[in-house]
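lol forgot to send this yesterday, sorry. struct tokens for the thing we talked abt
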């Protein structure tokens, strides 16, 4: 009887083992097959596929990574117009021509493998090599304000650093994000790289985003979003790189080139209808040049509200009864907002300007729409103090127009933002008309600043004692 029982147990055990092997083989095939061009239904499948792909990436070497990134840039640039249209149509925010610029910026000026360089120290005690190593699989929470540009940027950076990525798309932009992930997978496989280095989920939900953040095979979290997203990511217990909100002030003193300042401020605040967190959100200007600055802004496409009733109407329109930002007007053209107020204008109007007190709600909160409150100041000390208060400690971006180096230095030290733009539009701070590389993930809350491939690496220090010192 005991022998029969043992035979039965062995048979059942063998059946279970075969089923497990079949299941594992099926999962491995799915992980390698592309999961429908990198798009998966479930978080576990997506993470497992990215986990397998990342291990294969490390076997290919840096030169191959470089070729993969070249392929990603190429396919991205071939689809810029398509993706710009998709973004506008799906999210209802921003302007097509500006999204085209943002795509070119992300694809052309995001650094690649050249950003990851080792450090070497040699001396009497030998040689020390400091290398940049990948984290593994990164979970990326992406915004609706740049749903494809952020993916291009993060994908290039993460792959250059040797990581793979699981993208959690914003629910309001999942079609656009899905399309980008499919294009990235196409580019990678055409270059001979492993499929599923960048994957995403077909359905975007808060539950799935939470699953990604908690998954044991996710080693790094990269997130762009509001305070709620930042809190969730920072409390995950994982390494987190967070791009949070901002409320960038513009300070204009009496020494500024006022015609240029007026033009630059309008261009910066109207770019993408001011949905970018780097964009000018309020202007503090010295009393003696305020009228001239306002005049120059009007010349460059600003619409000036002077009647207090109109300013109150605007304020009521763009805020909810609870005092929150009215999401209906986020990223909408200035003409849409004015038309809703009963003021008929054309799309030639870029931004709405008006004078208010420093404690006005549209000054103290970030509204992500082309409305630009103006505050008159008596002197530079008052301007700096107010600007620091208004920026709110986000440490994101500040802008100043001045020819006084001492004033610029004092403001830069006091505001201590990640980006400080002098005498230019805000977007020059991310390489659009200014020098330096670009970033679509600007990590203020966690301190990394403008992200690049080395941001997504950890360091390894290799020490050879009393050896290979060729200078002795």
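and heres what i got for the seq, position by position
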């Amino acid at each position: 009887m005991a022998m029969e029982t043992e035979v039965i147990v062995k048979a059942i055990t063998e059946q279970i083992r075969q089923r497990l092997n079949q299941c594992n083989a099926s999962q491995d095939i799915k992980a390698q097959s592309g999961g429908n061009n990198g798009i998966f239904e479930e978080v576990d499948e997506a993470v497992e596929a990215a986990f397998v792909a990342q291990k294969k990436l490390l076997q290919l070497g840096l030169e191959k990574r470089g070729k993969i990134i070249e392929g990603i840039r190429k396919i991205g640039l071939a689809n810029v117009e398509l993706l710009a249209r998709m973004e506008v149509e799906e999210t209802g925010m921003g302007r097509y021509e500006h999204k085209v610029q943002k795509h070119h910026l992300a694809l052309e000026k995001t650094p690649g493998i050249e950003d990851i360089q080792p450090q070497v120290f040699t001396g009497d005690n030998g040689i020390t090599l400091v290398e940049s190593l990948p984290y593994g699989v990164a979970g990326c929470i992406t915004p609706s304000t740049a749903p494809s540009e952020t993916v291009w940027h993060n994908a290039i950076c993460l792959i250059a650093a040797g990581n793979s990525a699981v993208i959690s798309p914003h629910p309001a932009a999942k079609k656009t994000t899905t399309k980008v992930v499919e294009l990235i997978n196409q580019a990678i496989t055409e270059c001979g790289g492993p499929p599923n280095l960048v994957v995403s989920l077909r359905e975007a939900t808060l539950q799935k985003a939470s699953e990604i953040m908690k998954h044991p095979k996710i080693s790094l979290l990269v997130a762009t979003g509001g305070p709620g997203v930042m809190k969730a990511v920072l409390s995950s217990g994982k390494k987190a790189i967070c791009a949070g909100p901002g409320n960038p002030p513009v300070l204009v003193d009496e020494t500024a080139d006022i015609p240029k300042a007026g033009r630059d401020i309008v261009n910066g605040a109207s770019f993408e209808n001011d949905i970018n967190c780097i964009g000018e959100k309020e202007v503090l200007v010295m009393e003696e040049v305020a009228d001239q600055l306002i005049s120059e802004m009007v010349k460059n496409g600003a619409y000036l509200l002077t009647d207090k009733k109109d300013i109150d109407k605007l304020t009521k329109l763009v805020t909810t009864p609870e005092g929150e930002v009215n999401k209906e007007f986020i990223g909408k053209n200035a003409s849409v907002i004015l038309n809703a107020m009963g003021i008929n204008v054309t799309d030639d109007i870029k931004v709405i300007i008006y004078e208010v007190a420093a404690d006005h709600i549209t000054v103290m909160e970030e509204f992500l729409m082309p409305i630009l409150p103006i505050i008159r100041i008596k002197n530079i000390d008052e301007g700096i103090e107010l600007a620091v208060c208004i920026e709110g400690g986000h440490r994101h971006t500040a802008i100043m127009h001045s020819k006084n180096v001492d004033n610029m230095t004092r403001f830069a030290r006091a505001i201590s933002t990640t980006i400080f733009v002098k005498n230019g539009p805000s977007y020059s701070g991310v390489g659009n008309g200014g020098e330096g590389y670009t970033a679509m993930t600007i990590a203020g809350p966690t301190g990394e600043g403008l992200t690049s491939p080395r941001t997504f690496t950890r360091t390894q220090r290799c020490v050879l004692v009393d050896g290979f010192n060729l200078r002795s």
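Residues 20-34 have pLDDT under 50 and may be disordered. anyway ping me if u want another try
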